[in-house]
Amino acid sequence: MLKQVAFLINPAKRIQHQSYVDWVKQRVTFSLTIFDEAWPEALDAFDEVWVMGGDGTFNYFVNHYPNCDRPIALFKGGTGNDFYWKLFGDMSREKHLAAIIAGNAKPLDAGQVNDMLFLNGVGIGIEGEVLSAMDAIRWIGGALGYYLAAIPALFRFKTYHIQGHRPVFLCMVFNSARAGGGFHFFPHASIHDGQLDMLLCDPLPIWKRLFYMPIIQSGRHTRLPFVHFSTVRTEQIVCDRVLKAQVDGEVLEASTFDFKILPAKFNFIVSA
Questions:
Q1: Residues 125 and 204 reside in one and the same domain
Q2: Quick one: 151 exposed, middle or buried, by C-beta within 10 A (0-12, 13-18, 19+)?
């Protein structure tokens, strides 16, 4: 029986992705149903589901289909593409499609914060402020866009308090390794270890915030004395004020953030 695949495209970028989608269609021999406007209510009629977009699109997918049990293939099509990078690195388009067609699926973890699922992670405070600022410069994308949004935020963001902890400048809880189009916040994070990784950064003067930004981008901050790492399965973070948090490129505002790991939540197609 011919394999049935749903190919879900970010509707906001369907024109931008059209040539890529056409290239894929020419190279598959099974039934590929394109959804580039409205996505289906359910995926039961399909054997696999392919998703093209960036981290925000993937976040929308897992929250729209939180009980998806079909193998999921991700196609790069966003500004950051950080979770895609965790699965495929800088693999060429040809090798990536070959891996997708091979269909080697592996159960991978996801995380949950309050009522939202996430694949990459959550940055509370300055990360949320950076994301809000990036809306105006999202067309630049990648690490450069993140830098342009982050530098003003580094000057103005104020330290906050977390219940049970010292004051912090930065609090992040991640499932995967990086965000912001290439910032390796958790260079050793695993997406199949049944744990979330947490980072707390002590308050820093502005000059240190600027100085250490490229060091954090490269992932060389893991032994800095003011950065503290731990692993958790569940964690409640209570802040002293309402803060913006970025959740895989989406904004969540709250003063209390309840985290938990969702082990082996989704089956993602990965490279061999």
A1: yes
A2: middle
Of the residues 50, 77, 108, the one at which a domain ends:
108
User: Tokens standing for 260?
Assistant: 């938990």
- As beta bridge partners, residue 183 has 179
Residues with Cβ within 8 Å of 132's Cβ and at least 6 positions away in sequence, in order, are: 244, 251
State the pTM of this model.
0.90
**Which helix (H) or strand (E) covers residue 83, if one does?**
helix 82-88
Residue 134 pLDDT more than 90? no
194 residue type, one letter? G
Contact partners, residue 38, CB within 8 Å, separation at least 6: 11
Would you state the pLDDT for residue 101? 96
Range of the structural domain that residue 77 is part of: 4-108
Rg of the chain over all Cα atoms, to the nearest angstrom: 19
List the one residue out of 151, 149, 201 whose CA is nearest residue 171: 201
Helices 142-156 and 126-134, interaxial angle, to 10°?
130
